[in-house]
Amino acid sequence: MSTFPVTRLRRLRRTGALRSLVRETRLSVEDFVLPVFVAPEPLPNEALPAMSRFTVEQAAAEAEEAAAVGIQALIIFGIPEEKDDQGSGAWDDDGIVQQALRAIRERIPQLVLVTDVCLCEYTSHGHCGVLDGDEVANDETLDLLARTAVSHVDAGADAVAPSDMMDGRVAALRAALDDAGHDETPILSYAAKYASAFYGPFREAAGSAPSFGDRRGYQMDPANVREALRECELDVAEGADLLMVKPALPNLDVIRAVRERFDLPVAAYNVSGEYAMIKAAGAAGWMDEQAAALESLTAIKRAGADVIVTYWAKQLARSL
Asked: What is the pTM of this model?
């Protein structure tokens, strides 16, 4: 009698059709949110094309191209012409994000438009809130973030995404949106946003690097996961509708922990450094760029993400 095992797992790996038939995790273009940077002047980026800055008109064209390949949602970041200590350009009714929202909404009304709500792109010092000496003043920042969120929704945003990591920001945004008649607008909270080394290319694209110090006093320590769950619990209690983990790939365990603890939709941000590493390795011939990108995003979804914010969205949409 043969002792060779009856079960042969390779049977279902033999052909591409068989592998597809039993695939456990499936990526879809409908999972993706494409980040778009809008500024008064364009700034192309040949090495990292998705990190380019677009004018308002170019952003509307970019949104049109994204919709044509099946992308259903954008998240919009703005770089203003002028900055100040308060970041007042963030809530200007004619600010760069507000202009982009109106232009995109007019041309592609079916797109879901999410806006990043933070002050770092708008402050002259590059921190995510107003300063009290060299410290970010948490409570004084909340009203400015709330004003920004209301201004974005007034201009056409479908959802707002606070990324500042101030305590109490979700409650402040929820109260302000409700008072302004926007009680149906969802909040996508950057609930677990780590002080990460993977944000470098983003800060260049968004012009948001702090002029002194760093953000470790308000963004999370990458060593902590229990704290991430506490952040999520607070945001849920304050009225968040979706929870985000950022960055994604170094924190797959956090995505899984959030997915298992909460019933809300979970988003993950596949950040600029993750995008840049694969782009650079692909350009050097060290790996297959497309295959590595697909594998990375599949891992993020497998970990539990329902929504993936990714610079790969347009490039990979065609292959999906």
From this structure: 0.95
